[in-house]
Amino acid sequence: MIADFDDFCTWMYTIVDDIWLEVAPLFKRPGPAPTTCSDSELMTMVLVGECRGWNMETELLSNWREHKDLFPCLPSQSRFNRRRRNLAQAFNLIRRIVLSWLDVAQDRQCLIDSLPVEVVQFHLVPSSTGDWAAYGARFGRVSSKKRTIFGYKLHLLITLSGVILDFELAPANISDLEAGYELLSEHTDLAVHGDKAYVSAPKAAQLWKDNRLRLYAVPRRNQKKQWPTEVKRRFNAVRQLVETVNGQLTQQLNIETNCAHTFGGLCTRLYAKLTAHTLCVYINRLIGKTDFLRIKSLAFPI
Questions:
Q1: Taking a C-beta distance cutoff of 8 angstroms, is the pair 286, 155 a contact?
Q2: Of 240, 298, 294, 277, which is closest to residue 105 (Cα–Cα)?
Q3: Is the pLDDT confidence value at 299 over 50?
Q4: What is the three-class DSSP state of 155?
């Protein structure tokens, strides 16, 4: 049972530290090992900070100074940033390990969708000094928001239980169908539900031939072959599940809010946010809850 913020931090730290003890030898680090703030502590601070919406490093460290009973030794801002980026792949490995523990992650019924990740505001792109263009950031239209962004789209493969099974970051000008096909090509034996952006009989046929994967998408209005009304209704009801996960990522983990100045920094933040989401789902399962919002109300009081 999680009663307060301290309990949630303890759960997070215990899970992270148990995993880190096993995988730490896989990660070579420059310089001596830290003697005050351990890697497990730093990763826990990052993950909990993402859950709390502390997007800026200054904000995160400032808030953790008020909880020195939990983590008494805080690194400087520059050292914190450097260590977090060095541990980017460690966050993702922790996510994958926890994912393997979740029985609901074995669900063969999935959803696919995308979220915009804007890296530079539209009018500031000409004067941007970041490395975004070198790492594929492009202008792209976001139909759901009826606007054009400069950056990427995060494509998500989600089980019907709300677990993020896999993801791919693609330039914003790449269509959902093209990026989704690439993402799904890494999986087999799934039934995947997509919106109208994923309508393509040739792609669906290829996925079934090569990966035994069924890709379902509601036909567009101008297509000759249409689904029965009842089938559409049920399909759309299932598709609403992806909106729940998108809401968790955008409203609670602020995944569309980018505070990174480089592509490497962006990837580190995305790994941390997605790992935080997976850990929260896992903790919910352990304590007998299935609602991510329940974790927020218990562990993240406003």
A1: no
A2: 277
A3: no
A4: strand
226-241 core/surface letters (b: 16 or more CB in 10 A; e: else): eeeeeeeeeeeeebeb
Predicted pLDDT at 292: 42
Read off the tokens for 295: 């974790």
Name which of 128, 108, 109 is nearest 118 in CA terms.
Answer: 128
Q: Which CB contacts under 8 angstroms, 24+ apart, belong to 212-219? A: 212/188, 213/184, 213/187, 213/188, 213/189, 214/190, 215/184, 216/191, 216/192, 217/193
Round to whole Å and give the CA distance between 285 and 111.
21
How many CB atoms lie under 10 A from the CB of residue 247? 12
Please give the Cα distance from 125 to 72 (Å, whole number). 41
CA-CA distance, 207 to 184, in Å (whole number)?
A: 8
The SS3 assignment for 194 reads: strand
* DSSP H helical ranges for 143-258: 176-184, 201-211, 229-247
**pLDDT tens track for 172-182:** 999 999 999 99
Residue 85: predicted pLDDT: 94
Whether 91 and 271 have beta carbons less than 8 Å apart is answered as: yes
pLDDT for 295: 43
Are 196 and 239 a contacting pair, CB within 8 Å?
Answer: no
